[in-house]
Write the structure tokens for this entry.
Amino acid sequence: MILEFLTVGVILSAFLAVYLDDAVYSVAALSGTLILMAVLYSLNDAIFVAVFQLAIGVGTLAVLFLSGEMLSEKPEKKISLKGLAVAVGAALLLSVPSIFPSIEIAKAGLSSDVSFPKALWNLRAIDVVLQGLVIMTVAVGIAIVLHEKKGEE
Amino acid sequence: MMDYLILSIILLAIGFYGLLTKHDLLKIIISIELIATGASMNFVLLAPLLNKPLGEAFLILAFSTDTCVTGIVLALLVMASKKYGTSDMRKLAKLKHSQSIEKEEGRSSQISGDDA
């Protein structure tokens, strides 16, 4: 039963994240989506992924929240209560197809011959290092671009 | 397993809806996040079918790529907001169009001035 509620919550918050015009409410709804996804992962026995999702989600949401508050424009017209109710109804209707086939907990990695740390560090070690390089390059690139823009001003 | 696929498809559909209908850059980032979440959840939730935890390892790598994309789009958002004062894609497109017209007009007036 809890998985059905989680599924409805994920879809509802994802729909509201896109539907709501105010950036702050939108980011708050997105945080709900990411947290519920983390709970879904942990219930599926993927604890590492759940923790990683929460850690990355917190950083992303903090940046999105700040940029949404500072940079994006305020909506000209507020969404009426009726419109919000229609949106929630539409999201609940959207979630019906995913809750009717009853969701079962699928234990990720159970009875497997390869453990998660082994899979990550023995089989995908080069990928991990390359991803680190990619992230570092992107961070340096963004810093350079923003610094050049500041210099131009 | 089918229900997780349906959940993933619904998240993808919501993300695409946001990409197609919203014009604010922040909303576009949120839509991309939703698409990435919907796509990457399959790694974990379908991994037991193969009976290997490689799906989790792939998902962690996918998270970092997703963070890079978010960082790049946020940098674009900051640049656009500072330069043009707006984060609306339609207004940015109009500004770009009007700037290119102004450039062309300036170039043609320069050429006519040289001829005279």
Summary: The two ends of chain B are 76 Å apart (CA to CA). DSSP finds five helices and no strands in chain B. The helical segments of chain B are 2-21, 25-45, 47-50, 54-84, 89-115. Chain B has a mean pLDDT of 79.
